[in-house]
Amino acid sequence: xxxxxxxxxxxxxxxxxxxxxxxxxxxxxxxxxxxxxxxxxxxxxxxxxxxxxxxxxxxxxxxxxxxxxxxxxxxxxxxxxxxxxxxxxxxxxxxxxxxxxxxxxxxxxxxxxxxxxxxxxxxxxxxxxxxxxxxxxxxxxxxxxxxxxxxxxxxxxxxxxxxxxxxxxxxxxxxxxxxxxxxxxxxxxxxxxxxxxxxxxxxxxxxxxxxxxxxxxxxxxxxxxxxxxxxxxxxxxxxxxxxxxxxxxxxxxxxxxxxxxxxxxxxxxxxxxxxxxxxxxxxxxxxxxxxxxxxxxxxxxxxxxxxxxxxxxxxxxxxxxxxxxxxxxxxxxxxxxxxxxxxxxxxxxxxxxxxxxxxxxxxxxxxxxxxxxxxxxxxxxxxxxxxxxxxxxxxxxxxxxxxxxxxxxxxxxxxxxxxxxxxxxxxxxxxxxxxxxxxxxxxxxxxxxxxxxxxxxxxxxxxxxxxxxxxxxxxxxxxxxxxxxxxxxxxxxxxxxxxxxxxxxxxxxxxxxxxxxxxxxxxxxxxxxxxxxxxxxxxxxxxxxxxxxxxxxxxxxxxxxxxxxxxxxxxxxxxxxxxxxxxxxxxxxxxxxxxxxxxxxxxxxxxxxxxxxxxxxxxxxxxxxxxxxxxxxxxxxxxxxxxxxxxxxxxxxxxxxxxxxxxxxxxxxxxxxxxxxxxxxxxxxxxxxxxxxxxxxxxxxxxxxxxxxxxxxxxxxxxxxxxxxxxxxx
Length: 730
Prior knowledge:
By secondary structure, the protein is mainly alpha-helical. Helices cover about 60% and strands about 5% of the residues.
């Protein structure tokens, strides 16, 4: 699990709206964090636990209490407890690539860190969170955890701070917090809105009626676009009375939603949420247009944020036209049912988990849950297939960002499919179509987890199962788990022969060739890779995942056999093919092997240029394996080129710490490890053991991006390699 620590200070999101009130509560939570290593902000849905916790976290960050940062891990989108540690690791910016258990790697990363981790929305997998928190706190003495939850973690030394509703009456010195929040949010929709003699009493009554619940207040404030405070009060009263009498939410359906009412939608651990919040959401639901209500219900299947394309493709039909989805999304944003997250690439929408639960309740009453889960899965299956087809081309970086943004929804789609026997075949197809996400986008450990599940759920031989077998073999090779890679590759060949799938037999052969490369069985690797290359068809289905990597690996075998001159023409052809297609990811590996060939031929200047070209490409992908291979190779080249030996040791240190977190160092390959050992021995000879260890230690403190910047000379604020090169000659 490579250390891609892009922001050492943390990953707290920017505030989208002003933080109002809660000063004393925030101060209490901040003080509690100083008293205990586990603090839980406890409260019902809609009470503002997350906002309060994040405000306290920001203050602690500003105070400089945590030199290794303040980090947020959002758990509300997770369905599978087995990926909990992986999801938390992703929050730290770690690439999910290790062959070791996720918990073990996370513990190792955190062991020496002094940081604050905010775990948001723990209640839906409280058992798994409780177990992981116990492990992390025991293993990382400098770590503090702040959790938000509807129930306590029930752990020793847990300090619980109850998050109550906002105050609804004056304290003699300042306005009630609830009134302050309502007026602030009212100004978001009506900039000239003021509190005065004409409306102060009504606003105070409304805040009391809404019991100071922040979500209820925000839903009410947005309604000032078309209603007066008194009209909002009437609606709240009517809906609350209805709930009290019927135990139900609104049933105003205008022919789209059925005249049935969900069962109790707002229970957690047997404690019913406030009727007030149910009423506020209920009358917000009433005031939505019928089509908006239907879309609200259907959007509840999204596990996390989503874009307009996903909403249109998954939710349109049966009462909703594709052309009206964008307008309906805008309507839900204006009513504060959805929030908008905009970056330079796209606009994405998000729904609070409380509102999502409400929509899910209505979807269940519509008998639409199963249909929408299938539509949701089918959309992500189509997206995965499009990404797979487009991967060999100029859009790789865009697809890298796209699929990483969709990871939470992909998890949900896979989990749904593999949890239902009648959907398991499509789950297998989804998992295998995502080979590029698992192999190239930094999710190899998670990919292996899902591949194992998919293979277990689909035990009859098929072409899709053969593909899953060779993809897992691919990942196992990258992680240095050679026995597993060989077993899966042989299984792929055996099952491919059984069903008459010649491609599967050939690809299984290629994966055995890859394993042979890593175990330095060079003649065997040469034979197997050569056979695969001669047999594979030149079509897009095998070009990127199999054929072109086989060509690069065969060139590496030639280098390992001392035949660099023979490898170079093959690599030049490969690079030209990549350039013609606009492909980048594989090109970076071809540049790496070309650098090794140049080095063997004594062309050190060109070797270093190729390594730096490889590193510049890899910065765009979460490709820890490729980066550490480049850093290892570069450490050996700078020694040959006559640069300061300390530079080589520092590069080795940066690679070493990431190898440890990635999986088996140097992929368990004697070829790579022998080169590393020879380089380390030469550095020790030149500068001595103490200087070597000091430089190595400096490298181990570098984040991987900093190491890449050091190696490429692309950072002005580091002692870069280009600065060191300036005073040297070849």
